[in-house]
From TrEMBL:
<dbReference type="InterPro" id="IPR013087">
    <property type="entry name" value="Znf_C2H2_type"/>
</dbReference>
<keyword id="KW-0863">Zinc-finger</keyword>
<dbReference type="InterPro" id="IPR050888">
    <property type="entry name" value="ZnF_C2H2-type_TF"/>
</dbReference>
<keyword id="KW-0539">Nucleus</keyword>
<dbReference type="GO" id="GO:0008270">
    <property type="term" value="F:zinc ion binding"/>
</dbReference>
<feature type="compositionally biased region" description="Polar residues">
    <location>
        <begin position="1"/>
        <end position="13"/>
    </location>
</feature>
<keyword id="KW-0677">Repeat</keyword>
<dbReference type="GO" id="GO:0003870">
    <property type="term" value="F:5-aminolevulinate synthase activity"/>
</dbReference>
<feature type="domain" description="C2H2-type">
    <location>
        <begin position="154"/>
        <end position="182"/>
    </location>
</feature>
<keyword id="KW-0862">Zinc</keyword>
<keyword id="KW-0479">Metal-binding</keyword>
<keyword id="KW-0808">Transferase</keyword>
<protein>
    <submittedName>
        <fullName>Mitochondrial 5-aminolevulinate synthase</fullName>
        <ecNumber>2.3.1.37</ecNumber>
    </submittedName>
</protein>
<dbReference type="GO" id="GO:0005634">
    <property type="term" value="C:nucleus"/>
</dbReference>
<keyword id="KW-0012">Acyltransferase</keyword>
<feature type="region of interest" description="Disordered">
    <location>
        <begin position="1"/>
        <end position="28"/>
    </location>
</feature>
Length: 470
């Protein structure tokens, strides 16, 4: 019996017949097939790649047989029959006919009737127990479904996740979904009505809770600003707000203050607002001078008393009047001394119906002496217990900037007792709270070298003391 010969391709592409090296004229002729050495045409070998996730987010797959299955019921039956060793210790699925929702917001598996704490655990459960091949999260996000940039609840619908703030939500939209912030409308169309009675911004579709918040929203979100006055005007260089009796540190701060706090847009509106006098008997508890409505009657009366020095009570009879600028905060009429100037001024407003104004703010060039030995502020007419609080007051209230004051030896000829029981520095006339602070002060300002161990023992242990027993 002899095998039939086969026609094979040679290197040049012509049919060729090959024989085995042991073939002879009387032996069997075995023809061996050889592959062509030429590179085949790319058009013949480039097969189209089919996307397995076409119009779906998952499919069932047997990773042992490398075969795709149509449903969960079929793959469980297949593994039980073909791979019984792998299906032996598997936990049974409660509802086989139910398809799980892989994008469930609460990570709930309908087939197993089980809820997972995190999305990672839920997806791992679908891979292990349901034998699913899941579409990657990045691929799901690129399906063409984009989140709403202005979602009020900061919820991303494609990812099924809610964010705590709009800034984190916007960062997620930019990084994950490659979104850009939508372009704003033209400037004329995007500006809200500054005098809207309902505090409604038609551009952002948002209603604010108070007029001040609405004006702040107009300023920061829509760049609405106070119109600068004429350079020749008197108010061009003035940063004093007579409505609040307050001096602002710069012209920009003044403009932002009157725009947000008082709702004035230009110099004419500000001068008109100054002329308004608040009505303490207003039934709506509205202060026209400050452009604000108070929550209750008590708050309204306290605001009128503290800010505008107005009260419903009749003025007192003629008699002695307390001194507003008393340095000891002592009321001569009531014969009572208050611990703070704030309490003293509140007493004068409420009991004696006096108008108290911070007149020092009228002259911004009048500043206190930062080296005052008594820590007394000549501008505010108040005294402070120590130099630290006094200088802090000068920085915060009067906006003074000065270098650090070096330590001064009050008694340069005095001798310091390093073992003083009360940690007292005789040269500086100062007591310290802890021994560490006391020693740090001595080393830093008095260039004191610590004594040796023998000198310290000789100074601290008397000579006639009994020897220590060993």
């Amino acid at each position: 019996m002899q095998l039939r010969s086969r026609n094979l391709l040679s290197a040049s592409g012509q049919p060729r017949r090959l024989k085995d090296e042991h073939d002879s004229s009387r032996s069997l002729g075995i023809h061996i097939k050889q592959e062509a050495t030429e590179k085949p045409d790319s058009s013949l070998r480039a097969a189209p790649v089919v996307d397995p996730f076409l119009n779906r987010d998952y499919y069932y797959f047997c990773n042992v047989c490398n075969v795709e299955m149509p449903s969960l019921k079929v793959i469980l039956k297949h593994r039980k029959k073909v791979h019984p060793a792998l299906a032996k210790n598997r936990r049974p699925i409660k509802y086989v006919n139910r398809e799980p929702n892989i994008n469930h917001p609460k990570h709930y598996c309908r087939s197993c009737a089980h809820k997972f704490a995190k999305k990672v655990g839920y997806r791992q459960h679908l891979r292990d127990c349901h034998h699913m091949i899941l579409k990657t999260q990045q691929a799901v996000r690129q399906n063409g479904i984009l989140p709403d940039w202005d979602n009020p609840k900061f919820y991303c619908k494609p990812c099924g996740r809610r964010y705590r703030s709009k800034y984190n939500y916007w960062i997620h939209c930019r990084k994950t979904h490659n979104m850009e912030r939508p372009q704003k409308m033209p400037l004329k169309a995007q500006l809200p009505d500054f005098h809207d009675p309902n505090l409604y911004c038609r551009v952002c579709n948002v209603t604010q809770k108070s007029p001040r918040k609405y004006r702040a929203h107009c300023h920061y979100q829509h760049q609405m600003k106070y119109q600068a006055p004429d350079p020749d005007s008197k108010a061009a260089d003035d940063t004093y707000c007579s409505l609040c009796d307050k001096m602002l540190c710069s012209k920009t701060s003044f403009q932002i203050h009157v725009f947000i706090q008082h709702g004035v847009e230009n110099e004419a509106a500000y001068l008109e607002r100054i002329k308004l006098k608040p009505d303490i008997n207003n039934p709506d508890r509205y202060c026209c001078n400050c452009d604000m409505t108070l929550a209750n009657q008590r708050a309204f009366e306290e605001h009128m008393l503290a800010v505008h020095s107005l009260s419903k009570k009749p003025p007192p009879k003629e008699g002695p009047v307390p001194d507003v600028d008393d340095p000891n905060n002592h009321c001569l009429v009531c014969d009572y001394t208050y611990t703070s100037k704030l309490g003293y001024h509140l007493h004068i407003r409420k009991i004696h119906h006096m108008v108290v104004k911070r007149t020092f703010l009228q002259d911004p060039n009048h500043l206190p002496d930062p080296l005052d030995p008594n820590n007394y502020c000549s501008v505010c007419k108040s005294q402070f217990p120590n130099r630290t609080r006094y200088r802090c007051h000068c920085r915060s209230v009067h906006r003074m900037v000065f270098p650090k004051i070096p330590k001064i030896n009050v008694n340069p000829d005095a001798k310091i007792d390093i073992h003083h029981p009360k940690l007292y520095c005789a040269k500086c006339n100062h007591y310290y709270v802890s021994r560490g602070a006391f020693w740090a002060h001595i080393r830093k300002y008095h260039v004191f070298q610590s004594a040796s161990k023998e000198e310290y023992v000789a100074q601290t242990i008397p000579a006639d003391s009994p020897a220590e027993r060993v």
